Fold:
Amino acid sequence: MGIFFDLIIGGFAIGACYALVALAMVIIYKTSEVPNFAQGEMAMIAAFVAFTLIQSYGVGFWTTAAITVVFSFLLGCVLELAFLRPAKNPTVLGLIVITLGAEMILYGIAGWKWGANQNPFPVPFSEYSGIMVGGVMITEINIWTFVTSLVMMLLLFLFFRYTKVGVAMKAVQQNAFAARAMGIPTRRILTFTWGLSSVTGAVAGMLIAPIATLDPNMMLDPMMKGFAAAVLGGMTSLPGAAIGGYLLGLIENFFGGYVSLEFKSVVAFAVIVLILCVKPSGLFVKHYEKKV
Amino acid sequence: MDMKRDYFEDIQLFRTNTVLVVTVIFLAILAIVPFFAGAYTLYVLNLIAIHSIVAIGLNILVGYTGQISLGHAGFFAIGAYSCVLLMVKAGVPFIFALPAAGFISALFGFVLGLPSLRLEGPYLAIATLGFGMAVTQVISHSDFTGGHMGIKAPPMSLGSFVADTGAEQYAVIMTITVILAIAAVNLLKSRVGRAFVAIRDSEVAAEAMGINLPYYKTLAFAVSAFYTGIAGALMAFALEHVSAGSFNLILSITFLAMVIVGGLASVMGSILGAALLTYLQLKLLVIHEAPGIGPFLLEISKRFLTPEGIPNIQSIVIGAIMIAIVIFEPLGMHGIYLRTKRYWRTWPF
Structure:
């Protein structure tokens, strides 16, 4: 029975990271219908910046976290301003290609700056000690991942519910044209959305970096899983994305624990494709049939 | 003028005599190149030819049928592995193994085409992306395919003729490329090609016109996968070795970049895009050896970045090109060609 609870805890921990990546994707997709393939690399760059601050400049962990959040916010805004805004009437394919191009650029920059070395990401939490709950060990790092992701989700919820900018974002998501007619600066909101999404992704990156090793390929797999989780939840539903992330982490961990560790990352996609075949718009979104 | 007067003019392979003459001259140049070019040039040309096949195949899917695929590295891997495995484990001669690899790949293309009946946009992108990842994972964890180490490709042999020098490989690869390119042009002018274009422009309208949507969509995936599979098989012989690690997401993105740079819905554009990006990739890998800019970049890398990471400029440049194309020239190189043609049509008036 011990392994069962271990798998649940591990699944929730990694699922929390997927959920954050998925949330980051959904925030952008809802506002501008851009599936952001650069999300993973944005998070990876943020994690590298944090790593450099800690390792080379000896900045404390919490200061670093704060600086990284600001940095990732600016990174997201800059990407939107530089790449997305100049495109006139882009097609879905065009948007995908732009974000893929941004991904390649960020990937290249990370490889150029930090090389292909695998760096351990230092955190003030232990991987080996923690609290025992009913004979199952929950390590400090799992608790940290867990709490951070929940806090982040709570903050996002409060932001969208109670701040003026958050409400304006929701307005743009529902109907950009009407929002502009109401005096909401839609373009500025879009840029801000990218910043917010980038921050969410960066938090995910800083949670994943201690579990995985930090190299330019670090976020490729979590990004795809996060995307898959977002698709699972329906791509336009924030709670759906979060639930999708946890679900995916659990499914993956259980498959890895009980069936085959090697094909652990394949099963996630098999599940996604199967679910999409039954519910083409994901689990939590109503499917709209396209009309002429 | 390119006014078409009847249906047969529209489906002709060579629309005007000029096109015919230019094509013949181009093919003649391709035929005599191996007598002059060195080994490295031939290797580069082989890669360009192989990538052209992929770009044409992917363009049939993306440019003509309007579906999105981020999993073409998967088909590439399936083609490469099935051809090599058929030859090594089953002793099938090359001439049968190559089309077999294409058809195996096409079968997987058909299977991947099934979800495309219900998915579109980002949903289809994630499904194909997952497919590409899954293929690499399965191959690299399976003992039958040689695991992470990959397997060595046997020499290409047609009966007693063994293509082991660059020039002989060039002959085989280029012949196949030309045949496949002409076949693609022909296919796209036929009923099937028109059905693809109709699906791209409006699925609902296409269905109302009597186009069998499931049939043609899966067919587009299968044809595209067939091309990519053949290219993958040829790549195995050009590199003499296949390993699962090289068929990653970056490769799928590069394929897509070739199509975008060359121009959507243009066979000629695909070839141009493949040529440009393949050449750029090879050159940018050794950019620190380039005169002028090389030492400067090396100096910058030493001071601020890492010198070992300098080949990563390749990804930066390709990413920048992809973005620039979408923003400034959405039709790619084919669009530039069209504009130039239109400008000169009424010259000197």
Remarks:
- Chain B touches chain A through 54 residues (CB under 8 Å).
